[in-house]
Amino acid sequence: MKDWRANKLMPGAIIPKGGTAREYKTGGWRSATPKWDEEKCKQCLICWISCPEGAVLVKDGKVRGIDMDYCKGCGICVAECPFEVIEMVGG
Amino acid sequence: MKNISKKRVVATTGNGAVAEAMKQINPDVLVAYPITPQTAIVQDFSQFVADGAVDSEYVTVESEHSSMSACIGASAAGARVMTATSSQGLALMHEMLYIAAGSRLPIIMPNVNRALSAPINIHCDHSDSMGARDTGWIQLYSENAQEAYDNTIQAVRIAENKKVLLPVMVNLDGFIISHGIEKAEFIEDRKVKSFVGERKPFLPLLDVDNPVTYGPFDGLGGYFMEHKKNQADAMERARDVILEAAEDFAKISGRKYGFFEEYLLDDAEIAIVTLNSSAGTTKHVINELRAEGLPVGLLKLRVFRPFPAKELAEALKHLKAVAVLDRALSSGFVGPLFSEVQTALFNLETRPKVINFIYGLGGRDYTLHEARKAFEELMTVAKTGKIKKTLGYLGLKEVEVLV
User: Fold this and answer.
1) pLDDT level of residue B87 (50, 70, 90 thresholds)
2) Interface touch A16/B214, C-beta < 8 Å
3) Closest approach of B105 to chain A, Cα-based (Å)
4) Which residue of B73, B140, B217, B403 has the smallest Cβ count within 10 Å?
């Protein structure tokens, strides 16, 4: 089954390999995208705590960006940010 | 001496015959949950397990929803799996029936037809299996214990065929067949064993060296519609596989099966179309009416899904009038079998007039009297060429109705 591709139709939608959840990028569900402004960010980490998907990327205690592979565009970070550092943009 | 038959002719209930078939099939997994009138099947099977007559893993569960879930798991694991149910049990399985078929998992399930509540009733009608019409299961129907036995054995070959990979429901009438004792002929164990063979599962879950994923999400950006079309195509392919299995089965049993049985239909002018045990009563009345010189016949449908529309239309097209008997109700319109037969006939250049009778709900008797009534109405339709009433009831008591 090495030649299997995602668009090769299998009976019963069986996927001929395991651990496929890892490859499933739920960010594909997104219809609006958060835009984070690094310059204005006060690094309070409220967005990181609030994100239900754990999609706010933090390294060494600082927000570095948003993981678009898993951000579903819910906008909670925008609503929770006290400093209006994040805004929602289309797509 | 060589030609002495080793066939076993026995007196058996329908449930006993199905249980015997299951014993001979010797499935890897038998999932059991009791419900009248099916209970005797899994009860008999528990005895086979206790006696060491089978190698099956006997899984007792806490509901039919669980029993179908267990079947799905076992089938995905690669096991040959069977269960049996009736009525409310089949209804409780409903959502899992779709998952079994949609995941393309062969499962063999006798369903002993029984009415659905309310009012509470434990007796025969076909509301249960008709309610499961669109679940994606192959549906076979059996006139008597013999056919229930034969269909159960053939179901294994149909379900597990690589071109099909779909679950199969084998229907038999509750109490009338499940508990009535009649003659049946059992095939030798070794012949059944070689007929059903070993299951060769397609991508089984227990093949740990080749891990697979069952039941994945298949959303908007995916291939849900293509998978459903693929499933429908498998049901189409089941047509040939059903006939192939029947052909091979005839070699070990001497009994011939197709999509349906025609009884004195060739030279008939009017005929009844029906399912299951009512066919026997109808045949008896046909014999009587034929003796009176009346051109009457019967088409007894065996395969309801996939529906053999083309073949059925071909078999019925020469008739003047057809009565479709439905042992199930679709409140607000005609019976479910009538809908299918009418659809099958509609595009013929010339077609018989078709009327519908609801009969036998909740185990109400379908006697020689009711069969005669249906033929009498058909004779009027054939003579006048006019249908007074599309939908009628057979065996309805006269009662004063309050509201």
Assistant:
1) very high
2) no
3) 8
4) B403
Q: What is the mean pLDDT of chain B?
A: 97
Alpha helices in B273-367 (DSSP H): 278-291, 309-316, 336-346
Residue of A1, A9, A17 with shortest CB distance to B223: A9
The answer to whether A55 touches A25, Cβ cutoff 8 Å, is no
Residue intervals of chain B classified under CATH 3.40.50.970 are 8-253
3-state DSSP call for residue A27?
helix
Distance CA B301, CA B64 (A): 28
Helices marked H in B197-258 — which ranges? 224-253
| Residue B126 pLDDT exceeds 90 | yes
Question: Which value, in Å, is the radius of gyration of the alpha carbons in chain B?
Answer: 21
Q: What is the mean pLDDT of the segment spanning B104-117?
A: 98
Single-letter residue type at B190: R
* Eight-class DSSP state of B146: H
In this structure, whether the domain defined by B8-253 belongs to CATH 3.40.50.1980 is answered with no
In this complex, do B210 and A1 lie within 8 Å of one another by their Cβ atoms? yes
Give the pLDDT score at B67. Answer: 98
Amino acid at B359: Y
pLDDT mean over B260-281:
98
Query: What would the pLDDT profile of B374-392 be if each residue is shown by its tens digit?
Result: 999 999 999 999 999 999 9
A14–B214 CB contact, under 8 Å: yes
For the beta carbon of residue B51, count every other beta carbon within 10 angstroms.
9
CATH level 2 (architecture), domain A30-90: 2-Layer Sandwich (3.30)
- CA-nearest of B123, B179, B187 to B149 is B187
Smallest Cβ distance to B105: which of A1, A9, A12? A12
Residue of B nearest to A24 (CA): B217
Q: Which of B204, B253, B191 is nearest to B80 (CA)?
A: B204
pLDDT score recorded for residue B393: 98
Q: Write out the residues of chain B at the interface with chain A, using a CB-CB cutoff of 8 A.
A: 102-105, 165, 202-203, 210-218, 221, 223, 226-227, 230-231, 234
Identify the pLDDT of residue B338.
98
| Interface contact A16-B203, CB threshold 8 A | yes
Neighbours of B355 (CB within 10 A): 23
